Amino acid sequence: MFNMNSRQILYIVELFGTFACTWPSDPNSSKKQIIFRNVRWLFAMLNLTLLMISLTLAIYYFRRDVFILMKSISEMTSVIEAILDLILCRLNNDQLQVLVGKVKTFIEVANEHEIKAMERYMDRYKQFLSITASAIIICTILFSLTPFLSAQELPLDGWLPFSIESPGIYCIIYINHVYCIYLMAFCISIDFMIVILFSYSAAKLNILKEKLRHVNDFDVLVSCIKEHQEIIE
């Protein structure tokens, strides 16, 4: 990500957000695509909710084991955060759709100077977010492989009121855990999205500042004022 341009970063963030069901829908989506997206969102919410119930039971069941209790609480906070991310992105889908659409349009039509203006702001956060994303991905993989690397049966510390000795049941629970782990990890796309939106707004303001320096006509000034209002809305 260190050497990626704005188009590549936006594409990767969109992939992460699409998997996590936090990326705003495409306004040109067909009816089937909208239905499929809604089904994926419900599926993600169902899996996260089931995992949260399991972790809630673990908090009660292992209340005397401080180590497992703290792990369960920590994992539960991540699940709750992912659930809130999905809900908030769903509720604000229309606004995010408009904002992301503006960024995509800007990247497509902007000249080299304007693109560099945006990338200058993105570069301020690129290193930190790249390291953070790499660490999260590594942790995600390690969490997923926990049953193969330790004596722990499942990646997370949930408690279930039934046996998981059956291979079929174990596989279902394991897939649920791994899917939720990746959902929680890929919710980092929201942070990247915010950085992109801030960088876009900052770049637009910087470009507008350059325009204002060369204003010599009232109509141009009015146009700049309108553009400024549009940016800050």
From TrEMBL:
InterPro entries the UniProt entry points to: 7tm6_olfct_rcpt
Keywords from the named record: Cell membrane, Membrane, Olfaction, Receptor, Sensory transduction, Transducer, Transmembrane, Transmembrane helix
Superkingdom, natural source: Eukaryota
Molecular function per GO: odorant binding; olfactory receptor activity
Places the protein is found: Cell membrane
Record carries keyword Thylakoid: no
UniProt keyword Amino-acid biosynthesis, yes or no: no
Topology with respect to the bilayer: Multi-pass membrane protein
Transmembrane segments: 9-25, 41-62, 128-149, 181-203
A GO BP entry: signal transduction
One GO CC annotation: plasma membrane
Name of the protein: Uncharacterized protein
